[in-house]
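Re: the multi-chain job from yesterday

Posting the exact lines I submitted so nobody has to dig through the queue logs.
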Amino acid sequence: MMKLTQTAMNMTFKEKSAWGSLVALALISYWYFPAAFDAASDAADPGRLVWLSVACIVALIIIEAIYQSVIAAADGGASDERDAHINLKAERIAGYVLGITLFSLVGRIIAVEAFEVAETMTALTIAVSILLTLTVSEVAKLISQIAYYRFSA
Amino acid sequence: MAKTHVRNNIRVLRFQHGEMTQQALAEKVGVTRQTIVAIEKEKYSPSLEAAFKIAAVFGEPLDAVFSYEPGSR
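And the result, structure tokens for all chains:
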């Protein structure tokens, strides 16, 4: 417990921020995406997906705002050249992940449409899938940031 | 843990300047304490501007604080 407190004290504001964002995003995504894919395939009630998405975005914004203001009050929200350097490196990795996941999604859509290898994807399912690729790339960015803060850079 | 090729004497210089704390050095240079820790442990190579600022805090030329060791990784 003492070591954990010491580790937290050795983190910059940006690193604590990345940890908070990662946990919030992972928890909400873990709940959101199964429910969203379920709602997207329910053609009878497309409004459920909209409300689900709005609720998740609002929840994410509230959690982030509360957490960021708490750690900013403790740390002053300072950032410097190392934070910017790490952010750039993490953005590059996130870009690769986004490219790979988006191309995989396009490949899947083409395979489904051309070869009927699986059930046809609806527009809503594709929309949720695109949101999933964006979330995966954001998670990759946050994990990369934390790894750079912990192990190098 | 990957180290950079840039070596430094910051720990020694802090000791010679009245055990200057990492926090005090960070405030004078305008970076966070964690960045000074990373530079001191040679995990992060500072920008040229930050390196000059660190040298200026100790009143030393740049090459008295930092040196480059190619291929030492």
